[in-house]
Amino acid sequence: MSTSEATSYTFRVVNADGSVFGKGCFTHEGPPARGAVTIPAASGPKLTELWYSDPLVGTLRLADVRAFAFGPEQFALQLASGDQSVELKGGSATTAKPGPIASHRHGGNDFTSQGRSLEFPQPSEALPEATQGAATVSAVDLVVVIDASKSMRPEAVGLSETLNAAIEVARTRCPCDLRVTYLGIEGLFQGTRFDTTVRDYLRETAGANEAELKSRAYTWVAGGKVREDGGRAIEDLSNHFDWRPEAQRAVFFLGDEGLDGGGDVNARDVVGANKAIQTAQKARVRVHTYLGVTDASPWELEALKHEYARVAEETGGQSFLVQQTLEGFQDMLTSVICGSKSAPQAGAPVRSCCQAAVESPTAAVAATTSYTFRVLGADGALFGKGCFTHEGPPTPSAVTIPPATGPKLTAFWYHDAIVGSLRLEDVRALSFAPEQFSLALANPDSTLDLKAAGASPAKPGTVTQHRGKEGDFASQSRVVEFPRWAEPTVTVTEGQMTVPAVDLVVAIDASKSMREEAVGLSEMVGSAIKAAQTRCPSNLRVTYLGIEGTFGGTRFDTTVRDYLLKSVGADEAELKSRRFTWIAGGKVREDGARTIQDLSAHFDWRTGAQRAIFFLGDEGLNGGGELAAKDIAAANHAIEAAVSAEVRVHTYLGASKVKGLEALESEYARVARETGGQAYTVQRSLSGLQSMLESVICGSKPPPVTTTTEFRCCQACVEDFVAPKPAPPPAPEPAKVVVEDGKLRTLEKVYFASDKDNAIPESLPILDHVFELLRTHTDIKKLRIEAHTDNAGTKTYNQDLSARRAKWVRQYLIQKGIAEERLDSAGFGLTKPIDSNATPQGRANNRRVEFVIVEEQPPPPVARPM
């Protein structure tokens, strides 16, 4: 399958500690989809392959997908086997945060509570159908676009040839499927490769709708002309170029002035760069930049370099200067053209979705699996506890003793007050499978035993044998529960609270435009600090300063300069801040960047203290006004100084009337971001400040250490409770059949229905006692069953009736399990009375059954001393 026909992704299920537990992958038709891929299919491309494997559910495939949703911002799925015995359900995972596992079942056991999570899928490009070891070639679309203004003409020819040479060198280093397109922004350079404009190519070749283009048709604009609209050109190429579906995408922009119409960098250029970055990121386009020879002043050049580099860095590209030509281009182009090409190593896994890809050893397979079970009394109260461990992960195969199939049992313990503690060597029989559980336990001399069967996930099993030293307790109606997977013990150890020293300097632009906010900000910052301090221990020192001015009635009652000179003893000659004076565009009370430099370098930071500056302003960072090249250059110096001094800078942009507010907000945010701080605006003040200040000043604990200890079946596991004493067993019934004078004498008579040969039901227990005695007295080799009657009726009738009754009793005992050869029967009618037939009682005594021992096995001879 070629990369143009399908797109593959991989995903993982991870444990609570972050280790990998399961692996999965899926493939859908076509290129990476912007819409959702769903099952049941509702929209988006068709899912053509899915595999998932972990130690609990085994391996599941596309046919096992019950629900699936994958889009740019979320991922969820539900997998289940055909018989529903195993299931994995997880979501909603995002690019920023894994999704919880909501169901993780195997057979009758649920493992959901183990805290696993589902990660958002990562692209996994499928390799083309080629022989193993052959180089793999991805498509690359590279658009080289140049600022077509007059100032770039001298460089155009040289750059055209330099680019061509660099591309050829890159091609010689690796196989490639490269398409290069050379375009000019609203202009051409004859005699070079830049012979088509961006606008013409997008309309005529790519079929773009001109109304949707951000680029402006050629005309003069303030400060330059649209032939220098680099930011807009990057937007239009990202959105409308005819990128091949499977191709890597790259734009290489060449220019020498601002990105929004040329000239110096100003607020419009920053906003234009922001839009170009956002559009390129969304379209998965890397932008490489080249800043050519320029007439810009030193600070303007610094701002240009910064903005060109920012566009490249934030889109994953590289930036180059006029001093870096052939060698730099060759390296960059080699990475663009060859970056995704490698010859597969022998035995390396193919990065496509298949069963082998998810069944790699990466999945964490448990060395053993343990279960616990309980014996309950008739009232449902706990009576006994047991556990067992088998080798390997949970298995659908039965675990049996004697072993027949399935994994080996490595540990077993059971404890209650009747049998005490029994262990693995006391297991006579055990069978455990997803739907049934039974066991038989007995100590070596069989004086203690427990036998139970028929337990399932839905219903306990019956305890059929439960003997201890005090007797048999089986009649007390206890049950055994189906085993449950033994969850590991999770121990969370909290670290000790540490309270760091924190030095926070709150510095405000002391210009008139900030006066109205100063009082409110003073109280707001004070309230936020107080709220943070009440929530946690802290060692905080806060200093409030104004830039070349103060605000009466507020906390900002000292200037930065006075504090550094008088309290710290700084050398004024070393300060970067300018003394209060009017400058073009504003006054130094708005010198935010220089203030950050001076505070970073000269404030009396306590040794070991965390360092933070909170700067409050409403205009440009280099003397106020709207954002310009000098502000960007000054911000760069401030960032460099703060980073060098390990100072975090937090910024607050108040209500501002300057033009280009979006660019100003972007620059305030950049200073905070690049120093590790946070940026705030007038729209998000107190709540944001409190949150930031809490993170700055609060004492902190190290992250809790979570230790997971796998359960292992041991004696202590089952003896960790007070086993209840059983009710005493019932007193044994007195013997109803005894061996006496060569007979089995029954203490109760055997009665028959009148004139019938079958015993009445009430007499069957007597015959059962005869059976039990014969079963245990194997020394009785032959027994004759004799039946007798009284004298009522004829002699012949009574003879026949007695013979039939004796025969019926013999047959009953045979059916119970006594061997035929041990039993004879005989009827004697009225011939052997034992009492007078003249009275009712005498006749009742004559109606009887006798059990006569005919043959016994002699006892073994007694050895006599010599």
UniProtKB/TrEMBL annotation:
Indicate the segments annotated as coiled coil, or none if absent: none
Membrane listed as a keyword: yes
Main localization (coarse):
membrane
* Residue stretches spanning the membrane: none
Region annotated Disordered, chain positions: 88-118
| Keyword Repeat among UniProt keywords | no
What's a GO cellular component annotated to this UniProt protein? cell outer membrane
Q: Which residues form the OmpA-like domain?
A: 739-857
Provide the leader sequence positions.
none
Q: Which keywords are on file for this protein?
A: Cell outer membrane, Membrane
- Gene3D superfamilies from the xrefs? OmpA-like domain, von Willebrand factor, type A domain
What is the protein's given name? OmpA family protein
User: What is the annotated localization of this protein?
Assistant: Cell outer membrane
